[in-house]
Amino acid sequence: MTEVLSELSPARKAVAAASRVVVKVGSSSLTTAAGGLAPARLNALVDAIASRQERGSQIVLVSSGAIAAGLAPLGVQRRPKDLATQQAAASVGQLALAHAYAASFERYHLTVGQVLLTADDVVRRSHYRNAQRTLSRLLALGVVPVVNENDTVATDEIRFGDNDRLAALVAHLVMADALILLSDVDSLYDGDPRKGDARRIAEVTGPSDVEGVRAGRTGASGLGTGGMASKLAAARLAASAGIPVLLASAEQAAAALGPADVGTAFAVTGPRLSARRFWLGHAAGAAGRLWLDDGAVTAVVRGRRSLLAAGITAVDGEFDAGDVVELVDVEDRVVARGVVAFDAEELPALIGRSSHELPPEQRREVVHADDLVPLRFL
Ligand SMILES: Nc1ncnc2c1ncn2[C@@H]1O[C@H](COP(=O)(O)OP(=O)(O)O)[C@@H](O)[C@H]1O
Ligand SMILES: N[C@@H](CCC(=O)OP(=O)(O)O)C(=O)O
């Protein structure tokens, strides 16, 4: 093992050595095209997880597949487009999925616990802490948490949308040392490999490695959501928050959870954030936007300084002091998020003005540096 590890990139070594790992598996890797569970594939995944657990790691499994697994029992041919039928399929399928995992892990005398999360569970800070407590207790008890979105109650407006992002959020929530995304494709390519010649990308260490990559939004099976685009976004999110990522195919689960010498490895691109700063930067719902001039962007993003009224050019949204807002540059890119110290209606009279021009009671930072998270993606 030591010999193999020494030949690997730092990101692969980190994934192979991680003591707490979040593994995400997509619908297409667990179900058949006809829309039912594929027990042999599910068992192979569980074999790989049990083996890693046996070697001393703790695993959180984020598993898609509820909707796909519910199709066959309901006699539905294709993934339904309407929300109500998706929810009905998820209701039936999640039960089948949980049952299949419980039986499969039982082969190794491992207990599973089901955790169904809604977007609210990470958007609201108190819910976020609650989910964190539950997952950490499950892990302490030696249970394998099996996480999915609570599809039966999630509506279009409040959905995570895809489990890749959910997995990145859960990885930070449980303070994982690595995230492994398992799909039906063996790696990231510079274009969709189904559509002709595409070059495999083995290592992603910075922006230049993914420049020009075309990542599709739909998968081959029509069973999952998000395609490679959501996997790439989730990998970048986790890597930017200090968590190395391995993207591989579910068929290669044993190698991905073993020596990590397959797939695409994403090196970390930013420091580990505290739970509060991660929540602020990536999970909290934003109630408004503040547009910044170039000087303010530099001060806030590079200089890690507080945002003052003088650097703000425009305001949008209905927010109160204490809400989370996005800070946007002149090209409409979100460059940071933070807790705003003024109500929305107070700001138009203040923006663009230096502190000494403001009345004493309003002479304070609009977003204090301690409440502000610059967004650094690959
Ligand atoms: N640049 C790319 N690199 C690799 N795969 C890609 C790329 N663009 C699109 N894809 C497609 O994305 C699919 C994986 O997405 P999806 O089916 O949603 O996965 P899952 O169900 O595992 O979440 C692959 O089958 C592949 O054809
Ligand atoms: N929560 C949904 C899965 C959503 C999803 O992201 O699916 P996938 O793209 O297969 O990971 C389900 O269990 O059907």
TrEMBL record:
SUPFAM superfamilies: Carbamate kinase-like, PUA domain-like. InterPro entries: AceGlu_kinase-like_sf (IPR036393), Asp/Glu/Uridylate_kinase (IPR001048), G5K_ProB (IPR041739), Glu/AcGlu_kinase (IPR001057), Glu_5kinase (IPR011529), Glu_5kinase/COase_Synthase (IPR005715), Glutamate_5-kinase_CS (IPR019797), PUA (IPR002478). Its EC number is 2.7.2.11. Residues 288-367 form the PUA domain. GO terms for biological process: L-proline biosynthetic process. Keywords: Amino-acid biosynthesis, ATP-binding, Cytoplasm, Kinase, Nucleotide-binding, Proline biosynthesis, Transferase. GO terms for molecular function: ATP binding; glutamate 5-kinase activity; RNA binding. Catalyzes the transfer of a phosphate group to glutamate to form L-glutamate 5-phosphate. This is Glutamate 5-kinase.
